Amino acid sequence: SQTIHQWPATLVQPVGSPLSLECTVEGTSNPNLYWYRQAAGRGLQLLFYSVGIGQISSEVPQNLSASRPQDRQFILSSKKLLLSDSGFYLCAWSAGTGLNEQFFGPGTRLTVL
Amino acid sequence: DQQVKQNSPSLSVQEGRISILNCDYTNSMFDYFLWYKKYPAEGPTFLISISSIKDKNEDGRFTVFLNKSAKHLSLHIVPSQPGDSAVYFCAASAGTYKYIFGTGTRLKVLA
Questions:
Q1: How far is B17 from chain A (nearest CA, A)?
Q2: In what order do the strands lie in the sheet with B4-5?
């Protein structure tokens, strides 16, 4: 069966510090991978998605970047965090072809102070 | 531009009764729709989906209805249980890898 891991579960970082959130998927090959953010009281905002190694599509211009160094690894980064980067970050995967549901990881709660 | 809208931020229902969660969309190219359930501090869990070639899909207590002409879908939960209390998101895809989510509806099932 497939599983998706995210870490850390919670993170408190000062403004201006760097960020690295990691997501890995097990039990599947060539998944589509996604990063979402849920700000307080808001819906799920798609930040990035990737259909293959090194292929990243950005949905919203922002202070964040994403990378996919391996087939089942997706990393969300920032060089300098802003207060507005606080939120709940979710990684998700879907099968590579056809119409398929997404499966989400447990999320990372990021607080920027 | 919010292409997927959930206009009711919250809903309260008595245990055993029907819960109806609504979702409207604007993009006529959307052809696949999903519903997710989310508890606080957890990732969303997939509930049920429907393709645009159907108008109804049922899975246990959950039924999704799609009205393409009205660009509207709804999730029915019958009977509602206290464990159903969560935030429900609808999402839509236009045959691509992207999914657009609504802002969610918080359902509270009262015992």
A1: 26
A2: B4-5, B19-25, B72-77, B62-67, B56-59
Strands (E) across chain A are located at 3-7, 10-13, 19-26, 32-38, 44-52, 55-58, 65-70, 73-78, 87-94, 103-104, 108-112
What's the pLDDT tens digit per position in B49-89? 999 999 999 999 999 999 999 999 999 999 999 999 999 99
- Locate tokens 């979402």: which residue? A36
Interacting residues of B53 by C-beta distance below 8 A, sequence separation 6+: none
Can you tell me the distance from the alpha carbon of A47 to that of A83, in angstroms, rounded to the nearest whole number?
A: 17
Chain B residue nearest residue A4, CA to CA: B43
Residue A49, helix vs strand vs coil: strand
Which of B37, B93, B99, B103 to mutate to probe the A interface, most A CBs <10 Å? Answer: B99
SS3 of residue B102 by DSSP: coil
Q: Tell me, what's the pLDDT at A107?
A: 94
Which H or E run contains B34? strand B32-38
Task: Enter the DSSP assignment of B77.
Answer: E
Residues 21-60 of B with CB under 8 A from A: 31-32, 34, 36, 41-46, 49, 51
Higher pLDDT, A64 or A61: A64
